[in-house]
Hints:
The chain has two helices and nine strands, in the order αβββββββββα. It has helices spanning 2-20, 128-153, and strands at residues 35-42, 45-47, 50-53, 58-65, 70-74, 79-83, 88-94, 99-104, 117-122.
Amino acid sequence: MLWRRWIPALLLLAALAALSMPPTSEVSGKNSGARVVQVRASRYAFEPAVLRVRPGERVTLELVSADVVHGLYLDGYGLELEADPGQTAEVTFIASEPGVFRIRCSVTCGPMHPFMLGRLEVGEPKRAPRIAAAALLALAAGVVPLLKDEQHES
């Protein structure tokens, strides 16, 4: 069973990969000096639903409507956008206030409209979940050889 010898090495590589990956749903930047975040609105969700930016970062929100007229209101910043189907609306702001802010659709778009929510997280990326995943994979890499030894002794 040659493949069993590779399991610990593969688990360690997976742990290293988990640590090197960028935080989930962190928005990517463009060359304008502002971080551009495209938010796709469709009944009844924003995609992505969670946006993460750093404090003091200049952010451009681009709202794209996929089906009907949608709005985007950012609590705490007082920003509002409205996009027609197939159209893009944008606004640029400085993420000056750290914390978590609700995003909601500001145009009634159907019966589930009140549940069309998202959030903006302004703060440093959280690495704890990735570190925990890497630690578990490294632990598993150390346990697998021990289990193999026990099987050979039986």
